[in-house]
Amino acid sequence: MEFLIKVLLNALALFAAAYLLRPNVQIRDFGRALILAIVLALLNGTLGSVLKVIALPLNVLTLGLFSFVINALMILIADYFLKGFQVKGFWWALVMAVLMSIFNSILYRLFL
Questions:
Q1: CB under 8 Å to 44, separation ≥6 — which residues?
Q2: Which of 5, 79, 82, 84 would bridge 32 by S-S if both were Cys, CB 3.0 to 4.6 A apart?
Q3: How far apart are CA 50 and CA 83, in angstroms?
Q4: DSSP E strands: which ranges in the chain?
């Protein structure tokens, strides 16, 4: 049950971040944001975990900021595979990763 709540909160954060970054980041509708949240959860659980282990020395040197780069890469991979979701470049994906982190911390604090 907690996983479903987290997916819904992530979808809300994705939709809000895309709204703020429009026209450089676009999500067609909230249903697409839900699908994107699930895809990002799967990507972060598989490929993202492997990349975080490989990049651990860089992450330690940057005091955890390199995690945003890994999250931006996951967003770009999701952009490649999903229709109805578009990010115009790495820097916009990085800004979206930072915004998602901020929104998720606020939403998790409010609802979990």
A1: 71, 74
A2: 84
A3: 25
A4: 25-27, 85-87
Judge residue 110's burial from the number of C-beta atoms within 10 Å of its C-beta, 0-12 exposed, 13-18 middle, 19 or more buried.
exposed
Q: Report the candidate in 20, 23, 22, 68 with the shortest Cα–Cα distance to residue 44.
A: 68
Count of structural domains, the chain = 1
Q: Cβ(15)–Cβ(104) under 8 Å?
A: no
pLDDT tens column, 53-63: 999 999 999 99
pTM over 0.85: yes
Record the tokens describing residue 20, joined without a space: 């703020």
The answer to whether the beta carbons of residues 71 and 95 sit under 8 Å apart is: no
Structural domain span for residue 35? 2-111
